[in-house]
């Protein structure tokens, strides 16, 4: 059985945050989620996460995931260190297990890399294997020293390395593979006789070497994958790399992204082929975009489903559905639970909230449609307000097919406007409008002739 021990107990003091480091997000997902998913994607059957600082928040976030949590004890006199953290998962180090130790702050690690790493370890019959990387500037990293057979003979920390050893470009990533039984035995032999008074997992490599076991090294193809996050600066660096990966993935699958540098697409968003994404677009959460869509600049879409052939310009869409060949914007706002039918036009400065709008209907500009069911082929004029709130409760308005709502009308909910009903411009409607009826609700116009002359307004300022 393959088991992962994911080290996620670090306090992350350099983040200067109340949030546990591993819950900070990269392209919309917590750092730790990337490592868990990569491990699962590499067919690791059992995933054990070692938590410490902010453990309750971490457990709460991942409570639906099929993972095992073990808490690292906190208290005076405890040794701490990576070796101490790995010890918290010792019960899962079985006779026939392969244990991969992963860092909970390296979101760029790929499932394919973990899979190849485990295969290299197992097929090479290694007792321990270190994931290494070749860096032009290895400053700060532990150096990998190999013997004549190419096996690891020693890991030398930067501060302890000689001038010659510091010139070694191969470094320790902090990610390991072990025979479970040997890892368990070796952990019982490490000690904290060092300047930090901590137990180090690297000491296991030394023990395996001393006892004549075979220790290998697998060089990661892309050194960016081992990049850890300890500060907001490093978080931003990982965000940039992940953003580029995501955008390249979509472009490789037939999506045109005109300016990848200014396009933000979170992990998990899906986009159909031949869709065009303009600069300055943000796609977040559980969003899916269909084929042949045009998403123009300054648009943000969150947790929404956009069907094929939709055009959206400079608009905000949240938790909503837009059906085929509709147009949204510019400067429209679809608030949560809006459902826009096929070939609908939602135009300039129109706000829709918790409403269904039927096929071929249109609201061209400056309207508020809240808590409504709008039928097919309905015209909603400029300045129309669906007045849904009485100060205490929200009420719904139902507008039938082929209805016409004239400009600057107020529809006072609860209200029914039936099929083919017409509402005259400037009306305030409080009662049901029957099918085929014209409803006019205006105060009568009064013109007072000569009023300006009587008031003497023409002489003001002379």
Automatic annotation (TrEMBL):
<feature type="binding site">
    <location>
        <position position="105"/>
    </location>
    <ligand>
        <name>Mg(2+)</name>
    </ligand>
</feature>
<keyword id="KW-0963">Cytoplasm</keyword>
<feature type="binding site">
    <location>
        <position position="442"/>
    </location>
    <ligand>
        <name>acetyl-CoA</name>
    </ligand>
</feature>
<feature type="binding site">
    <location>
        <position position="230"/>
    </location>
    <ligand>
        <name>UDP-N-acetyl-alpha-D-glucosamine</name>
    </ligand>
</feature>
<feature type="binding site">
    <location>
        <position position="353"/>
    </location>
    <ligand>
        <name>UDP-N-acetyl-alpha-D-glucosamine</name>
    </ligand>
</feature>
<keyword id="KW-0677">Repeat</keyword>
<dbReference type="InterPro" id="IPR005835">
    <property type="entry name" value="NTP_transferase_dom"/>
</dbReference>
<feature type="region of interest" description="Linker">
    <location>
        <begin position="233"/>
        <end position="253"/>
    </location>
</feature>
<feature type="binding site">
    <location>
        <begin position="388"/>
        <end position="389"/>
    </location>
    <ligand>
        <name>acetyl-CoA</name>
    </ligand>
</feature>
<feature type="binding site">
    <location>
        <begin position="7"/>
        <end position="10"/>
    </location>
    <ligand>
        <name>UDP-N-acetyl-alpha-D-glucosamine</name>
    </ligand>
</feature>
<dbReference type="GO" id="GO:0006048">
    <property type="term" value="P:UDP-N-acetylglucosamine biosynthetic process"/>
</dbReference>
<comment type="similarity">
    <text>In the C-terminal section; belongs to the transferase hexapeptide repeat family.</text>
</comment>
<dbReference type="InterPro" id="IPR011004">
    <property type="entry name" value="Trimer_LpxA-like_sf"/>
</dbReference>
<feature type="binding site">
    <location>
        <position position="368"/>
    </location>
    <ligand>
        <name>UDP-N-acetyl-alpha-D-glucosamine</name>
    </ligand>
</feature>
<dbReference type="GO" id="GO:0071555">
    <property type="term" value="P:cell wall organization"/>
</dbReference>
<comment type="pathway">
    <text>Nucleotide-sugar biosynthesis; UDP-N-acetyl-alpha-D-glucosamine biosynthesis; UDP-N-acetyl-alpha-D-glucosamine from N-acetyl-alpha-D-glucosamine 1-phosphate: step 1/1.</text>
</comment>
<keyword id="KW-0548">Nucleotidyltransferase</keyword>
<dbReference type="Pfam" id="PF00483">
    <property type="entry name" value="NTP_transferase"/>
</dbReference>
<feature type="active site" description="Proton acceptor">
    <location>
        <position position="365"/>
    </location>
</feature>
<dbReference type="GO" id="GO:0019134">
    <property type="term" value="F:glucosamine-1-phosphate N-acetyltransferase activity"/>
</dbReference>
<feature type="binding site">
    <location>
        <position position="157"/>
    </location>
    <ligand>
        <name>UDP-N-acetyl-alpha-D-glucosamine</name>
    </ligand>
</feature>
<comment type="function">
    <text>Catalyzes the last two sequential reactions in the de novo biosynthetic pathway for UDP-N-acetylglucosamine (UDP-GlcNAc). The C-terminal domain catalyzes the transfer of acetyl group from acetyl coenzyme A to glucosamine-1-phosphate (GlcN-1-P) to produce N-acetylglucosamine-1-phosphate (GlcNAc-1-P), which is converted into UDP-GlcNAc by the transfer of uridine 5-monophosphate (from uridine 5-triphosphate), a reaction catalyzed by the N-terminal domain.</text>
</comment>
<feature type="region of interest" description="N-acetyltransferase">
    <location>
        <begin position="254"/>
        <end position="462"/>
    </location>
</feature>
<dbReference type="GO" id="GO:0000902">
    <property type="term" value="P:cell morphogenesis"/>
</dbReference>
<protein>
    <recommendedName>
        <fullName>Bifunctional protein GlmU</fullName>
        <ecNumber>2.7.7.23</ecNumber>
        <ecNumber>2.3.1.157</ecNumber>
    </recommendedName>
</protein>
<dbReference type="InterPro" id="IPR038009">
    <property type="entry name" value="GlmU_C_LbH"/>
</dbReference>
<dbReference type="GO" id="GO:0000287">
    <property type="term" value="F:magnesium ion binding"/>
</dbReference>
<comment type="subunit">
    <text>Homotrimer.</text>
</comment>
<keyword id="KW-0511">Multifunctional enzyme</keyword>
<comment type="pathway">
    <text>Nucleotide-sugar biosynthesis; UDP-N-acetyl-alpha-D-glucosamine biosynthesis; N-acetyl-alpha-D-glucosamine 1-phosphate from alpha-D-glucosamine 6-phosphate (route II): step 2/2.</text>
</comment>
<dbReference type="InterPro" id="IPR050065">
    <property type="entry name" value="GlmU-like"/>
</dbReference>
<dbReference type="GO" id="GO:0009252">
    <property type="term" value="P:peptidoglycan biosynthetic process"/>
</dbReference>
<dbReference type="GO" id="GO:0016020">
    <property type="term" value="C:membrane"/>
</dbReference>
<feature type="region of interest" description="Pyrophosphorylase">
    <location>
        <begin position="1"/>
        <end position="232"/>
    </location>
</feature>
<dbReference type="InterPro" id="IPR001451">
    <property type="entry name" value="Hexapep"/>
</dbReference>
<dbReference type="Pfam" id="PF00132">
    <property type="entry name" value="Hexapep"/>
</dbReference>
<feature type="binding site">
    <location>
        <position position="335"/>
    </location>
    <ligand>
        <name>UDP-N-acetyl-alpha-D-glucosamine</name>
    </ligand>
</feature>
<feature type="binding site">
    <location>
        <position position="379"/>
    </location>
    <ligand>
        <name>UDP-N-acetyl-alpha-D-glucosamine</name>
    </ligand>
</feature>
<dbReference type="GO" id="GO:0008360">
    <property type="term" value="P:regulation of cell shape"/>
</dbReference>
<dbReference type="GO" id="GO:0009245">
    <property type="term" value="P:lipid A biosynthetic process"/>
</dbReference>
<feature type="binding site">
    <location>
        <begin position="81"/>
        <end position="82"/>
    </location>
    <ligand>
        <name>UDP-N-acetyl-alpha-D-glucosamine</name>
    </ligand>
</feature>
<keyword id="KW-0808">Transferase</keyword>
């Amino acid at each position: 059985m393959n088991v992962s021990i994911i080290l996620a107990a670090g306090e992350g003091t350099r983040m200067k945050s109340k949030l546990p480091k591993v819950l900070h997000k990269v392209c919309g997902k917590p750092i730790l989620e990337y490592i868990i998913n990569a491990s699962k994607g590499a067919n690791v059957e059992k995933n054990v996460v070692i938590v410490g600082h902010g453990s309750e928040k971490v457990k709460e976030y991942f409570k639906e995931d099929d993972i095992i949590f073990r808490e690292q004890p906190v208290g005076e006199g405890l040794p701490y260190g990576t070796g101490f953290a790995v010890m918290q998962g010792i019960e899962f180090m079985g006779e026939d297990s392969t244990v991969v130790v992963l860092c909970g702050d390296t979101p760029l690690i790929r499932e394919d890399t973990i899979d190849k790493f485990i295969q290299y370890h197992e097929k090479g019959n290694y007792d321990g294997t270190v994931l290494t990387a070749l860096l032009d500037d290895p400053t700060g990293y532990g150096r990998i020293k190999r013997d004549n057979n190419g096996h690891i003979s020693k890991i030398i920390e930067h501060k302890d390395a000689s001038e010659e050893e510091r010139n070694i470009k191969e470094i320790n990533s902090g990610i390991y593979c072990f025979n479970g039984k040997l890892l368990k035995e070796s952990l019982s032999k490490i000690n904290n006789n060092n300047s930090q008074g901590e137990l180090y997992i690297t000491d296991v490599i030394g023990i395996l070497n001393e006892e004549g076991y075979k220790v290998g090294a697998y060089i990661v193809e892309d050194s960016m994958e081992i990049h850890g996050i300890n500060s907001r600066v490093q978080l931003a660096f990982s965000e940039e790399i992940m953003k580029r990966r995501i955008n390249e993935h979509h472009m490789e699958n037939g999506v045109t992204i005109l300016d990848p540098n200014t396009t933000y697409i979170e992990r998990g968003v899906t986009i159909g082929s031949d869709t065009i994404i303009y600069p300055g677009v943000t796609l977040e959460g559980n969003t899916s975009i269909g084929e042949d869509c045009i998403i123009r600049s300054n648009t943000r879409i969150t947790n929404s489903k956009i069907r094929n052939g939709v055009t959206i310009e400079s608009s905000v869409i949240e938790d909503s559905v837009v059906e085929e060949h509709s147009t949204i914007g510019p400067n429209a706002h679809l608030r949560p639970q809006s459902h826009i039918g096929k070939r609908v036009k939602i135009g300039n400065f129109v706000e829709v909230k918790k409403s269904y709008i039927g096929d071929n209907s249109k609201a061209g500009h400056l309207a508020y449609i809240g808590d409504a069911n709008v039928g097919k082929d309905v015209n909603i004029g400029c300045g129309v307000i669906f007045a849904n709130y009485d100060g205490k409760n929200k009420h719904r308005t139902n507008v039938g097919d082929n209805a016409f709502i004239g400009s600057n009308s107020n529809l006072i909910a609860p209200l029914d406007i039936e099929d083919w009903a017409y509402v005259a411009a400037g009306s305030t409607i409080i009662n049901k409008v029957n099918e085929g009826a014209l409803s006019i609700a205006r105060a009568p116009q009064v013109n007072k002739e000569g009023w300006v002359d009587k008031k003497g307004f023409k002489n003001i300022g002379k």
